[in-house]
Amino acid sequence: MNAKDLLHVAQEHGSPVYVYDADTIVSQYERLTSAFAKVENLRIHYAVKALSNISILKLFKQLGAGLDTVSSQEVQLGIAAGVDPSKIIYTPNGVSLEEIEKVASMGVQINIDNLSILEQFGAKHPKVPVCVRINPHVMAGGNANISVGHIDSKFGISIHQIPHLLRIVENTGMTVNGVHMHTGSDILDIGVFLYATEILFETAAKFKDLEFIDFGSGFKVPYKEGDVSTDIEDLGEQLSGRFNEFCKSYGKDIALAFEPGKFLVSEAGHFLAQVNVIKQTTSTVFAGVDSGFNHLIRPMLYGSYHGIKNISNPEGKNRFYSVVGYICETDTFAQNRQISEISEGDILAFSNAGAYCYSMASNYNSRYRPAEVLWHNGQAHLIRERETMEDILKNQVEVELELNSDLVEA
Ligand SMILES: *Cc1c(COP(=O)(O)O)cnc(C)c1O
């Protein structure tokens, strides 16, 4: 999508608004599947939590993808989008046995990440095959909050506990049909990732009834020029060969599964916000927009970088700005950023706004969550309406307390 297309969306649907380019999603999906073309049996499960709009899930269904889910609600959304439960994998962390049983009863593939639940589930439902999430204790990530494979991580069953895991499987008579790892977001170094996969292969060989190995995700996408990103083509080349070798030694053509979120949708998304005010202080020029961390929290939460362009004046002279939101606490999108000259009323476009942006939006400050638009063939399809006051009041219950009469205003 170019600046003109984006501006057109802002004019048609108002601001703030999220826009997703269907072509970018499709081409990222195709990049991934062609990188692993040499694998006979490839399963891509799109990680719903990155961007969970039902129309996005329908697009992935059309492409032939399955879904990776972390809550029973995401499972229900996927089923509502028409995805077959057998193509959904459920990888929760710290949820109750009841929720896992509920999801299993829908015919969804369960992925269990701790021995306590594995033991209880296996004892009650030995006929339901499960996948186990292994923690190989490899630190592949960039950001400590989103690195989940290290030794102190709450995720997965430690490789040091495999002997106990095998005893549980034997004693309950349950079937393990998959092994899984997800080392955390942002794989910067393919070598480190491949090292973790070797640990997973070694673990996989200990299970007799595997149908798949799931290598999780964490593919890094570029946020700005010069950023390191995961070389999917190189990873595909190296891992495909190794995987096919494993299948030979295992004696069965099992499936290779991935569950990317960010890689598939991050770059497809733009967030559009309008500049309400330009404020010149002694040290800084602020551009204050009609949004805040209630709509796009990643810069404040993770220190994430999002490119910002002034699409109302793309050819303007570059000047330095701090772009800030309207929330009543520090709410900075970008500091000292070179952006083409901004006037009040201009529309700014934030890039890499497809993953973990709308899905993390809130009603903080009692603001409405934005609208969402899916762009395809030069057309803007509204896929979520902007909220209204009704949404803010929905589920709120008004009570009037009986206070002592001397406290009540006459
Ligand atoms: C969040 C998550 C993913 C997706 O991670 P990305 O970095 O967005 O690709 C995949 N698998 C699991 C288990 C997750 O929790």
From TrEMBL:
The active site is at 328 (proton donor). Residues 23-266 form the Orn/DAP/Arg decarboxylase 2 N-terminal domain. It comes from the Bacteria. Pyridoxal 5'-phosphate binds at residues 218, 356. Keywords: Amino-acid biosynthesis, Decarboxylase, Lyase, Lysine biosynthesis, Pyridoxal phosphate. GO terms for biological process: lysine biosynthetic process via diaminopimelate. It holds the Pfam family Orn_DAP_Arg_deC. It catalyses: meso-2,6-diaminopimelate + H(+) = L-lysine + CO2. CDD domains: PLPDE_III_DapDC (cd06828). Residues 18-354 form the Orn/DAP/Arg decarboxylase 2 C-terminal domain. Pathway: Amino-acid biosynthesis; L-lysine biosynthesis via DAP pathway; L-lysine from DL-2,6-diaminopimelate: step 1/1. Its EC number is 4.1.1.20. Its cofactor is pyridoxal 5'-phosphate. Specifically catalyzes the decarboxylation of meso-diaminopimelate (meso-DAP) to L-lysine. Homodimer. This is Diaminopimelate decarboxylase. It comes from Nonlabens agnitus. The lineage of its organism: Bacteria, Pseudomonadati, Bacteroidota, Flavobacteriia, Flavobacteriales.
